[in-house]
Amino acid sequence: MLPEEEVGGCSRTFFSSLVQLIPCRAAVAPFSPVPPTESCCAAIVTLGRPCLCLLANGPPLSGIDRSMALQLPLTCSANFPPCDVIT
After folding, report:
1. Which helix (H) or strand (E) segment is 47 a member of?
2. Contact 75/45 with Cβ under 8 angstroms?
3. Per residue in 24-71, pLDDT tens?
4. How many degrees, rounded to 5, is the angle at CA 43 between CA 46 and CA 1?
5. Nearest to 10 by CA among 42, 52, 45
6. Which residues contact 20 (CB under 8 A, 6 or more apart)?
7. Which end of the chain is more exposed for a tag (fewer CB within 10 A), N or C?
8. Is the sign of the CA dihedral 52, 40, 82, 50 positive or negative?
9. What is the CB-side half-sphere exposure of residue 18 using CA atoms within 13 A?
10. CB–CB of 29/65 below 8 Å?
11. φ/ψ of residue 64, rounded to 5
């Protein structure tokens, strides 16, 4: 697990960032036609780009379509650029 200290501009751990995105679970499930809810979009804005990118570059997560998760800032009209995903 990553330390509590700031990692790549994110002041949260990987796990706490993931918990913050619980409202987005239905919107990022594989093959989900469900758009993000207002609470999901609020979570994306609160989480911010550094923590979303931390999740995007973290280990694979069961039940989460990473490409759909990376579309959330655009879908939610969050004003931050896309993450640079390390493959």
Report:
1. helix 38-56
2. no
3. 999 999 998 899 999 999 999 999 999 998 888 888 888 889 888 889
4. 80
5. 52
6. 12, 43, 46, 47, 51
7. C
8. negative
9. 16
10. yes
11. -125, 125
